[in-house]
């Protein structure tokens, strides 16, 4: 019962936050007084509803969705975890991978996009850029999870001469899971931002970013905001699906434990 009330209160406050955001947006649009520069929520919603009825919008949303999940998450997340486990457990692997992590962290995203466009073309640039940005995030979170393992448990596993596979399974994997989940949440939001930025820059066919760029070129600010709102909504939906999947996994884990 308490959990139900807490969930209801959380939903109410979330809706209140959304309402406050929309109200602030409407007030800012009225104060600015130029719909061509800053349209209010209603014109943007009208443009979004009109876009949602077009095949062009459906195709752009679907392809951007696959770029985010296919390149940024499905590839970068597991490979980042594997690299993080290797770097966290082996000093040689950490020393070998540290220049890559440092270089990726230091290079501006815009430079990555431009270089990838020259090498890979418009279609693959958003995927490659997302991969390159997400990979070190997942690796760093995994390394942090390994470092957070209980030292006393490490001594216990060493005393009982547990194998590396058993130590990884029963000691390190439970330690890194909260960090991996946290990295996955932040990576998903980052991935949408990076993919959208790359799409705006290189304008691949059938992409949300290309829609934004074309709307800007035609000075259609309402449509530009509509494409942006669609991207934000898509990212929020992905976050919601991830949260739901994690809750289901936790419930199944508790059920199996019982």
Beta-strand level of the residues, as a percent range? under 5%
Mean pLDDT across the residues is 86
Kindly name the structural category.
mainly alpha
Largest sheet: none
The counted number of beta strands is: 0
Number of helices: 11
Unreliable stretches (pLDDT < 50, length at least 5) are none
What overall form do the CA principal axes indicate? globular
**Helix content estimate:** over 70%
Computed CA radius of gyration, to the nearest angstrom:
22 Å
Termini separation comes to 21 Å
Order of helices and strands: HHHHHHHHHHH
What does this structure look like?
- With 258 residues, the chain is mainly α.
- 86% of the residues lie in helices and 0% in strands.
- It is built from eleven helices and no strands.
- The chain is globular, with a radius of gyration of 22 Å.
- The mean pLDDT is 86.
Write the layout of secondary structure elements.
Blueprint: H1 2-32, H2 41-51, H3 55-73, H4 76-89, H5 91-106, H6 109-120, H7 125-147, H8 151-159, H9 164-202, H10 208-217, H11 221-257
